[in-house]
Amino acid sequence: MKNVTVEDVARNCGLSRATVSRVINGEARVKPGTIERVKRAIDELGYHPNAHARALSGGRTGTVAVLLRGGAWRPYYSTLLEGVEEVASRAGLHVLLRTHEYLEAAQAILEEGRADGFIIRNLDEPERHRRLFDRLAARGAPFVLVGDPVGDCQSITIDNVGGARALAHHFAEHGFRRVLFIAGPEGHIDSNDRLYGFKLGLSEKGFDQAGLELVRGDFSTPSGFNAMRESLQSGRPEAVFAANDRMALGAMLQLRQAGLRVPEDMAVAGFDDAYFAEYVTPPLTTVRQPFHELGVTAMVTLERLLSGGQANSRHIILPTTLTVRASCGCRYAGHNPPIPEDRFETS
């Protein structure tokens, strides 16, 4: 079956191609009667506008680009994307996802006009990101950052400081006096904010900072394993707070290998509330990131910008929640809940 083109629509309704294009792209200053003629021809012929062609002619594509570094397989990203797509679907928008070399992909998407706006996970390489932000701003393409705020760019982030501070207060209530903090890479803003909040919370409870040890990892499970081993070589802390749950899991694995029990010999806590946190033994005390809410808020904000409106705030900070389970030494009534069926793959 032949694809119906703009030219076919123009011939059907007796108008020029330029006039039909203006109607399709929703441009102003088109008479209502002309709009009706074009719509009738579109319905009669079954014409579907090509988003790429509309973009090249200056029209809207109805597509938003989501740029994530490190692969969409991460549970953080999959839950965030659920929130993005939930809002995009209601708004009639399509989502274009890029993870591999996404900064280069973003440039191509921008130059080819394949997206009306961008949601960008802002993690590292600040100079390259700033160059991209400048290009987007110069082209008038709205964008929202998920992560570290940059200048006056629209951003959505979480309360890293407040979450770590709450965990510190909880550790102080347990009476711990020798505590290990497993940090992320030096210079990583999320990790540094969590360390700052943890130190702040401990100092508010009268904790002697001399009892705080710092070892760095890279947010991976093996790095948490190695950091815990390094700490055990110089002594034994009473409690461990890792800057993310995967490093906390690595610490627990090292403690098990060393013949130490969690929490009887050492308490462990993490940050994120990753999908596995409630299923490890013992279930992991952690600080919950609002992954889904991040995606929803980012997409709602971008939709407002695309509609010519304003966001509620230039820099939106979503709250985190201390989730107390058993790994810190607390009694946990929900120990090892059944795994939902949708976590299993079926053939």
Description of the structure:
α7 links the parallel β3 and β4 (143-147). The strands form two sheets. This protein has a six-stranded parallel beta sheet with strand order 2-1-3-4-5-11, sandwiched between helices. It has a six-stranded mixed beta sheet with strand order 7-6-8-9-10-12, with helices on both faces. The protein is 43% helix and 16% strand. The protein is built from twelve helices and twelve strands.
Query: Largest sheet, if any?
Result: 6 strands, parallel
Q: What is the overall shape?
A: elongated
Tally the beta strands: 12
Order of helices and strands: HHHHEHEHEHEEHEHEHEHEEHEE
Low-confidence stretches: 343-347
Key terms for this structure?
347 residues, alpha/beta, 6-stranded parallel β-sheet, 6-stranded mixed β-sheet, 12 strands, elongated, disordered C terminus
Question: Layout of SSEs?
Answer:
Layout: H1 6-13, H2 17-24, H3 32-45, H4 51-56, E1 63-67, H5 75-90, E2 94-98, H6 102-111, E3 117-122, H7 126-138, E4 143-147, E5 155-158, H8 160-174, E6 179-183, H9 189-204, E7 212-216, H10 221-234, E8 239-242, H11 245-257, E9 267-272, E10 285-288, H12 291-306, E11 315-318, E12 321-323
Parallel strand pairs: 1-2, 1-3, 3-4, 4-5, 5-11, 6-7, 6-8, 8-9, 9-10
Antiparallel strand pairs: 10-12
Helix pairs in contact: 1-2, 1-3, 5-12, 6-7, 8-9, 10-11
Quick structural summary:
The chain is an alpha/beta fold.
